[in-house]
Design brief:
Length: about 475
Amino acid sequence: MKKVATRFAPSPTGPLHIGGVRTALFNWLYSKNKNGSFYLRIEDTDKERSKNEYKEQIIKSLKWIGIENDGNEYIQSKKIEDHIKVANELLKNGHAYKCYCSSKEIEEQKLRAKQKKIPYIYDRKWRDKNEAEAPKDTKPTIRFKSKIDGTSILKDLVQGDIEIENNTIEDFIILRNDGSPTYNLSASVDDHQMNITHIIRGDDHKINTFKQMQIYLAMKWELPFFAHIPLIHTIEGKKLSKRDKASTLDDYSKIGIMPDALRNYLLRLGWSYKDKEIFTLDESIKHFNLEGIGKSPSKLDMSRILSINEHYIKNMDETYLFDQFIEYCKLFKNEIKSDKKDKIKRSLTFLKNKAKTLEDIFNNGQYIMVDEINFNQDDIKLIDDEAKKVISDFCAQFEKVDTLSKEVLEPIVNGVIKSNDTNFKGVGQPLRIGLTGSKFGPGIYDIIISLGKEEVTKRLTSKKLS
């Protein structure tokens, strides 16, 4: 049996879509599960819309989520001569023909079909015509001679057997009148030349599969296996498009969703294994199979993504979490000063509490990262004479301590509560505002310990509080 080979074949005409990432993931996992190869093919034959920046974004996005292709990227535009050669072979073998219909004629046929409210299918005008009748000033397209009689069956590894009437597949163009190949021809030739054994893609490609199967059969090539996975929908049940918010990986990395968490979410989006929810990378490869893919569309659920990300933040090794956080800040926020990094690292245990994203950790730790506190204007108004006395009493006791721990700080806070005839909030709130600029934030003991004695004293004796 042939070594399993899968591919992911995006067009660099826009940023990589989240649905494309899941397709790439399923192909990659299937090939790794079978000890096979996974290839990345850049389908860049749309010269006007293809851009190098999108190609780079696709490659970067896949690497970010942990998908590494085998070998170099396969660039489709470099193989056009091979595609044209196959078109000419099909022409020579009677499986294709020259069509001299003008674009005006085609438009008229489409208009008539629209008026009759029936799908447009080319009327096969030049299928059996003699080329001697061809107009002299028209450059022909080359059309594939599709089967007219009977039915074709696609043995789909996800959807099961799919049967269609052959006469519903038009004689599709394989070479345009400028001599350039079309998608179905190029994809078929590339898949054959790359020895692709399994084509796993969205179920919006089913009609293309029937066309490509006919090219394979006409060329007497061995058919690959096909698996069509249901599309991803929005939470409202509409097909997810590139225009939707949170449709590209950049949308997720910007808010601090981690690659491992998003990969875990996409794995479970339309695929299941027993009742397992969280998968390590090795477990994903070990358990992935096509049988676990469902037949219905999946809904992209942001709350579920945040929940899985929170799970990863809480359970991952803190050194690894810290490295991810520093990288995130470098890319999307401000690079953290080296003298603040140690304080952040020591404080991660509580900064990650209730954090669903790396952005939440960034917001929770802002008070550590800044040199100058920005006070919330409503909260600073709460620093009245009573609050100032609480801060002053605390500072008087605080300067006597050498080490900082909850055990050392608790008696001081309790003493201030007693001497000011207040409660924990009456002490905690003024201190929190003085140290962070806001009445909201981590626990007061965590804040004090994370800042250190010198910084706490500096902030609480600031002129802005007097």
